[in-house]
């Protein structure tokens, strides 16, 4: 993380990524919702064929993952935290999990040691998968996380490259409408949605210098509300064919808009 509290400029992508790496290291230390490893009982059930992983709060649609993942080469992309990757490994998949946060990856390593799983962890940026050869994986599993990088098109291009022909990309993200409203707590308390920000949204560009400096000083992760053209259109531009699409509700609404529409989106795309 930068040494000073000077706000980031619009072209400081590497500084943003480093800031967010440190932010997720801190979240992992606090055992936040996405840094809480699955139990030994969950792993035992997965070994017996009773398992499930999530892109959104609801269960995956039937057919998005094979019923039997034994031998499938799966990249869990930016999804460390000791949750999806260990379950897929226990179900028999050949799993690699890549994440920017070493503390998040440590959660996966911890579960693997505890339960005797074969699991590979790699630290890296989701935009650069050059450590993997072309066609390395059968499946890329990429749950909500790409709001932490300024430009997601490199993510889709790299996913396409590292998948074999016929491989599948399962991804999820927020509907960008969640980034539009003013974050005034008084508005939220009164159920008011006051549009303020235009999509695509960027903490770096759209927050006031004071708000951005405060977020940096607090060590909060910086976010980017990518448009659907970037999220879905970006996958198509990379060469994917869209095979499945769902929207899902936020079970614990954080924003007023969550009460009125499904704000999670998940896609199932295939490399021809």
Helix-and-strand structural type: alpha/beta
Q: In oligomeric terms, what are we looking at?
A: single chain
User: Any low-confidence stretches, pLDDT <50, length ≥5?
Assistant: 1-6
Question: CA-to-CA gap between the ends?
Answer: 40 Å
The shape, in one word, is globular
**Number of strand segments:** 9
| String of helices and strands | HHEHEHEEHEHEHHEHEE
Strand content: 15-25%
Characterize the biggest β-sheet.
7 strands, mixed
Q: What is the arithmetic mean of pLDDT?
A: 94
Helix content: 25-40%
Give a description of the structure.
The chain is of the alpha/beta class and 272 residues long. 32% of the residues lie in helices and 19% in strands. It is built from 9 helices and 9 strands. The longest helix is centred in the N-terminal third of the chain and has 17 residues, at 13-29. α1 (13-29) crosses α4 and α5 packs parallel to α9 (228-238).
Concise synopsis of the structure shown:
With 272 residues, this protein is α/β, with parallel strands linked by helices.
What are the defining features of this structure?
single chain, about 270 residues, alpha/beta, 7-stranded mixed beta sheet, two-stranded antiparallel ribbon, 9 strands, about 30% helix
Write the layout of secondary structure elements.
Blueprint: H1 13-29, H2 40-47, E1 73-77, H3 84-90, E2 94-99, H4 102-115, E3 119-123, E4 137-142, H5 153-162, E5 163-174, H6 185-189, E6 201-202, H7 203-206, H8 209-218, E7 224-225, H9 228-238, E8 241-248, E9 264-270
Parallel strand pairs: 1-2, 1-4, 2-3, 4-5
Antiparallel strand pairs: 5-9, 6-7, 8-9
């Amino acid at each position: 993380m930068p040494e000073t509290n000077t706000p980031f400029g619009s072209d400081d992508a590497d500084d943003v990524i480093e800031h967010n790496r440190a932010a997720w290291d801190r979240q992992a230390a606090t055992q936040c919702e996405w840094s809480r490893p699955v139990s030994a009982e969950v792993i035992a059930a997965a070994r017996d064929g009773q398992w499930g992983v999530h892109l959104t709060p609801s269960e995956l649609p039937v057919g998005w993952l094979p019923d039997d993942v034994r031998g499938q080469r799966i990249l869990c992309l930016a999804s460390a935290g000791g949750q999806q990757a260990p379950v897929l490994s226990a179900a028999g998949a050949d799993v690699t999990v890549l994440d920017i946060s070493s503390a998040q990856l440590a959660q996966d390593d911890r579960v693997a040691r505890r339960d005797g799983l074969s699991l590979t962890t790699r630290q890296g940026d989701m935009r650069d998968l050059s450590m993997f050869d072309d066609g390395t994986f059968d499946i890329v599993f990429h749950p909500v996380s790409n709001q932490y990088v300024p430009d997601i098109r490199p993510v889709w291009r790299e996913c396409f490259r590292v998948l074999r022909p016929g491989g599948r990309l399962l991804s999820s993200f927020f509907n960008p409408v969640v980034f539009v409203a003013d974050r005034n707590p008084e508005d939220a308390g009164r159920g008011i949605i006051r549009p303020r920000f235009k999509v695509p949204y960027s903490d770096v560009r759209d927050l006031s210098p004071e708000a951005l400096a405060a977020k940096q000083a607090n060590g909060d992760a910086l976010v980017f509300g990518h448009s659907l053209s970037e999220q879905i259109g970006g996958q198509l531009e990379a060469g994917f064919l869209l095979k499945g699409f769902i929207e899902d509700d936020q079970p614990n609404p954080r924003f007023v808009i969550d009460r009125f529409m499904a704000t999670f989106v998940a896609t199932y795309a295939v490399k021809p």
